[in-house]
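Thread: quick sanity check before group meeting

JM: Hey all, I'm pulling together slides for Thursday and realized we never actually wrote out the predicted structure for the chain we discussed last week. Dropping the sequence here so it's in one place. If anyone has concerns about the input, flag it before I start.
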Amino acid sequence: MQRLVLLAVLVCHARAFALDGSSNSYSQFRKWGGGTNGTLEFEFKTDQPNGLLLYTDDGGTYDFFEIKLVEGALRLRYNLGGGAQIITVGKELNDGHWHKVQVQRHDDRTILTVDGVSQMRTSRGKEFNFGKFETNSDVYIGGMPKWYNKKLALLALPSVIFEPRFMGSVRNLIYPDSEGGTARRQETRPKDHRVSESLISIN
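JM (edit): ok, ran it. Output follows.
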């Protein structure tokens, strides 16, 4: 019985979805309850040095969070209304192995951690809440829906449309999907475009 339970846990942990990097490739998830003290984490693996991993914003005003690979390094660019900040962590992350990403928010401080290595930035201003939950966008993984091309005003960071799409696998996307909620593993929304899903090894 214990072996069966362990096997079920390993299979659940190992489930990942693959994105092929094509022009229609992305996956869509529930809104992030980022608030002022929200957390978000996921794992990815790829052999490509560039690609948009995650994007979410406040519906087109100021606030956004963009996570992407730039020449093998992980870059978080974000704005909480007081000006954009950039945090870069890691190198050669396009090595085909799994890497764990964590974003932690503590009022004016934002911490990016990749495989246990952290960098922190402090935002300017007086108000550090991530948008308004009711009007924030969903969380997009791997790329943006094409319909945004005709509605750039709905994006706080319109240039995200031109980022190369992520080609690789993602798993264990965990964050609170309500204001003040508890972080939990997220499932793709019914209207998402997920290229493929497969069980893969946890190594």
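AS: nice. The chain has one domain: 16-184. Residues 16-184 form a domain with the Jelly Rolls fold (CATH 2.60.120.200).
JM: adding both to the slides.
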